[in-house]
Amino acid sequence: MIGWISIEGTALNYPVMQTPGSPDFYLRRNFEKQYSEAGTPYVTEGCSISPQSDNITIYGHHMKSGKLFGVLDGYNSEAFWREHPIIRFDTRAGFGEYEIFAVFKVAPADFLYHTFINAAEQAEFYEYVRRCKELSLYDTGIAVGYGDNLITLSTCEYSQEDGRLVVVARKIREGGA
Prior knowledge:
- The protein is α+β, with helices and mostly antiparallel strands.
- It has a single domain, classed as Sortase, Chain: A (Beta Barrel), CATH 2.40.260.
- The chain has helices at 78-83, 122-135, and strands spanning 3-6, 13-16, 42-43, 55-59, 86-91, 97-106, 150-157, 163-171.
- It has an eight-stranded mixed β-sheet.
- A hairpin with a 5-residue loop joins strand 5 (86-91) and strand 6 (97-106).
- The longest helix is centred in the last third of the chain and has 14 residues, at 122-135.
- The protein is globular.
């Protein structure tokens, strides 16, 4: 277990796992490592919480019951985002609140959002942010700057073949900016 993710006022409140040697280990396993169709939210293999990667991608199953990352369906509505703009992601390295700046639907082949972990240079970081905002279902008005830590939540989405619903947030800076 590397952390805990939650969104206040929703059912999203779960441990987050990471198994670098077996990246999809928790895709179909519960916290106790037993088989579970629902799995457990987990972080992609190359991400690090200490030092923190530029972007940490967290995968979770889209459950029709609204559990796990099924909650993210709410972000199809700007009104839901306004009610739940913050994701809490606490790790062994520290506590963190993240402001959602983009919500989009995409086929991973059309935008390799899940491969962005650390920017080799400033331009690469800004290109990732630009593309996320370009695809976003609505404008949140949240500014993102080079050096901000990001989290990307990814779950299945069924309006297109191999679709994903993606929610991207930046860590709230000290002083609340």
